[in-house]
Amino acid sequence: MRLSLGLGFKQGKGRLAVTHSQQCSTGLFVPQSPPLDPEKVRELQRFISLSKRLLVMTGAGVSTESGIPDYRSEKVGLYARTDRRPIQHRDFISSAPVRQQYWARNFVGWPRFSSHLPNSAHQALSSWERHGKLYWLVTQNVDALHTKAGSQRLTELHGCMNRVLCLDCGDQTPRGLLQERFEVLNPTWSAEAHGLAPDGDIFLSEDQVQSFQVASCARCGGPLKPDVVFFGDTVHRDKVDFVRRRVQEADSLLVVGSSLQVYSGYRFIITAQERKLPIAILNIGPTRSDHLACLKLDSRCGELLPLIDPR
């Protein structure tokens, strides 16, 4: 079975295996951007050099160069490519058929999603932390790429796809172990995917998912959910308060790869503005907070960040 976006799926020994085609480049989901402006590079270098307690907030645009699509990028984001929309928290919680559809799609997409590697932007931010330049990193992404790159002073604002929680007892399971349970429950199940979406999602028809068997919590038998904040849900208050304290302790804020359209991240820009912190934004295309930034750069994150010396 083949995917039009450069992914192949094949059936073998009772499980779905993912193959990568040569057509799937890391730039497939990165919007067009102007050439690097040397003066802008120098301005960002000055901004970073003057920062002593730098807080960085990253969004989907930092991971598109690793081959993970986003939602809002012009021409290449999910909203531009299709009329499909991400799953809503309320629907997942209240409907067993919605959970069956979600887990069938996630089962197909997980091998590909979990194989993504950090790009040079993730590596650069990890290096800034090692050199004592980056005080704290807040990511809106759920792909674990910052962790793979070695970042430790990190808050995953919207959770992480690598973990699964029971909605009844709260027991936590590694996503990889759940994949093995799905394979045992569905030894002959197969599906043809139709397109690629963010967060490990794959498009499947309703007919394809009806026979998929969903695993329940091994501890109590309750329904399982990835440890992420779905659309329509809210970030836990304790996590919001923790990040707000990190912003209050910082002396500058750099946004990397986010349009800041989602309030869960935008609220911290408001906190930074109230504290009169200098704000820089690196994102291809406009953001919700361009008018609040002292510096705005429209460049690829992985192209620009490695040029900055954190020492």
Write out the CATH superfamily name of the largest domain: TPP-binding domain
User: What is the count of β-strands?
Assistant: 11
Mean pLDDT: 87
Main sheet: strand order: 5-4-3-9-10-11
Please estimate the helix content: 25-40%
Question: Would you spell out the secondary-structure blueprint of this structure?
Answer:
Elements: E1 7-12, E2 15-20, H1 38-50, E3 54-58, H2 78-81, H3 89-94, H4 96-114, H5 120-130, E4 134-139, H6 145-149, E5 154-156, E6 159-166, E7 172-174, H7 175-185, H8 206-209, E8 224-228, H9 237-249, E9 252-256, H10 263-274, E10 279-282, E11 295-297, H11 301-304
Parallel strand pairs: 3-4, 3-9, 4-5, 9-10, 10-11
Antiparallel strand pairs: 1-2, 6-7, 6-8
Helix pairs in contact: 9-10
Describe this structure in words.
This protein is α/β, with parallel strands linked by helices and 311 residues long. Helices cover 33% and strands 17% of the residues. The chain has 11 helices and 11 strands. The strands form 3 sheets. The protein has a 6-stranded parallel sheet with strand order 5-4-3-9-10-11, sandwiched between helices. The chain has a 3-stranded antiparallel sheet with strand order 7-6-8. Strand 9 (252-256), helix 10 and strand 10 form a beta-alpha-beta unit. The longest helix is centred in the middle third of the chain and has 19 residues, at 96-114. The protein starts with 6 loop residues before the first strand and ends in a 7-residue tail after the last helix.
